[in-house]
Amino acid sequence: MLGMALEYAILVSLLEKPGSGYELARRFDRSIGYFWTATHQQIYRVLKRMEGDGWIEVREVAQEGRPDKKVHSVTPQGRRALEDWLREPVEPASLRHGLAVKIRGAAFSDPADLIGEVERHRAAHSARLEEYLTGEARDFPDPVSLDDGAALVHVVLRGGIEYERMTLAWLDEVLAVLHRIRAGHAES
């Protein structure tokens, strides 16, 4: 099972705080999902497999007026699996970017047709940056006094923030080139 990152993202999340499948899925929607996405269905399916593999254990917690909650936590075997995985090298991510291919291909069509698509990507990255910055302000108001675990969570979030800023700067550059080309075509 080594190399399957969803299992390890779940182990990390459960080591930070045991929780139900629903709580875990919400964490993926909120913070882990910034860097590793998974549907609720995928999370529940992987939790079941991890329980079968002995990586996590589940205990029932009674709730008043609601069905019992299944709280997942990491077993020693799961912790060892994570530690083994942490020692493995991770290949640097390669950039597979459909928009970049379209931008290069625009030389063989009207580049102005691409402006709306680049603006749409820019709006999405701008919204994600705002979401990250809001989360940072909410969750890390005093980054200097963070414990080791929180400092590592924060530095991953900072990587996301810087990635979005870099992407926005690149998209602004792309838009400037596309507008310049469009203006040149209009003069022709």
From TrEMBL:
<protein>
    <submittedName>
        <fullName>PadR family transcriptional regulator</fullName>
    </submittedName>
</protein>
<dbReference type="InterPro" id="IPR018309">
    <property type="entry name" value="Tscrpt_reg_PadR_C"/>
</dbReference>
<feature type="domain" description="Transcription regulator PadR C-terminal">
    <location>
        <begin position="96"/>
        <end position="178"/>
    </location>
</feature>
<dbReference type="Pfam" id="PF10400">
    <property type="entry name" value="Vir_act_alpha_C"/>
</dbReference>
<dbReference type="Pfam" id="PF03551">
    <property type="entry name" value="PadR"/>
</dbReference>
<dbReference type="InterPro" id="IPR036388">
    <property type="entry name" value="WH-like_DNA-bd_sf"/>
</dbReference>
<dbReference type="InterPro" id="IPR036390">
    <property type="entry name" value="WH_DNA-bd_sf"/>
</dbReference>
<feature type="domain" description="Transcription regulator PadR N-terminal">
    <location>
        <begin position="10"/>
        <end position="83"/>
    </location>
</feature>
<dbReference type="InterPro" id="IPR005149">
    <property type="entry name" value="Tscrpt_reg_PadR_N"/>
</dbReference>
